[in-house]
Amino acid sequence: MREAQELHEPQAPQSRQTKPSSAVVRDALGVGVAVGLSGFAFGVTAVGSGLSVLQTCALSLLVFTGASQFALVGALAAGGNPFTAAAGAFFLGTRNAFYGLRLSGLLGLRAAAKPFAAHWVIDETSAVALTQPDRRSARLGFAVTGVTLYLLWNLTTFAGARGAGALGDQAAWGLDAAGPAVFVALLAPLLTSTVERFAAGLAVVLLLVTLPLLPAGVPVLVAALAAPAVLYVEGRRARIRTSDEPETGVDVHVRGNGAGEADAR
Amino acid sequence: MNVWIAIGVTAVGCYLVKYLGLLVPAGALEKPLVKRLAALLPVALLAALTAQQTFSDGHHLLFDAKVAGVGAAVIALLLRAPFLVVVAVAVAVTAGVRALGG
């Protein structure tokens, strides 16, 4: 996952150096194999939550975005209705749209290829592709990570789902810790600055406060509001810092912007 | 049946947002606010999910062996352990603490 650390670094528009294909493939395989094998934990978790083997495998084949799958299974196990449960999983999946925004320019995909490439637009393929120095390496990294991860994730999901019964009590094996550990590992490289850490902290607080009060699946949606909230506060502070006007004027200016920015434009 | 509905809605929804991202013209990227939100939204969601799965059973807050396991995973990450090792450490520590009666 070390590759993911540079996910949010600005990319140089032109390649400064070319990267050997073997190095790209090695990076991609490392991520694909490591994350692909954790499909086992998903298979075990899903069957342990009451899904059938077929339902579990359908999720890995058709949804193929790990965090959403874990979230859906967790929400169903907690007794959420199918639409609230799906809403939480869907909302988590929306981050893949933002990866797509950055990838489409980088990979330069033809229109006909996009519907097929779309299924593989997830955290790991994006992390590998976005950290490559040029388009050729980005395409190679995306494809190799995508193939490896898709195959392994589905095979290990099936193995985990089939093996879940044989394991007996999964809690005794500590397998319920695999889901949150996967999320921690995905999150850690993204906490690059104070703003990111503050958003993460606020999201945790919002979740813990709302979890006992709101229906299953909803607290995660509420916690996601930490992102726009932190950006709003950051924007306000930046505006105050850039204003050199006398204090009374600054106050009115900021209040005006804060209350009705949309109206003013 | 409810489970199949949830699977169907999630599969269609998740695929469409992936596809939509690839379809949006590159110009939308130029807005700094969109860029910042795109970077920050996954951070908030992943943090919330981590907390939800670590400190609850979905409905109620609870503090059990899983907390020790996820804590160990964080330490493994700080020591720059590879992805699979991080997950394995979390599982092993959780199982260990439970075996000891935690």
UniProtKB/TrEMBL annotation, chain B:
Does the entry feature the keyword Transmembrane helix, yes or no?
Answer: yes
Q: Which InterPro entries match?
A: Brnchd-chn_aa_trnsp_AzlD
Q: Name one Pfam family in it.
A: AzlD
Q: Which key words are in the record?
A: Membrane, Transmembrane, Transmembrane helix
Looking at the record's lineage, which domain of life comes first?
Answer: Bacteria
Q: Which residues cross the membrane?
A: 6-25, 37-55, 67-97
Q: What is the lineage of its organism?
A: Bacteria, Bacillati, Actinomycetota, Actinomycetes, Kitasatosporales
The identity of this protein, by name, is Branched-chain amino acid transporter AzlD
Species per Swiss-Prot/TrEMBL record: Streptomyces chrestomyceticus JCM 4735
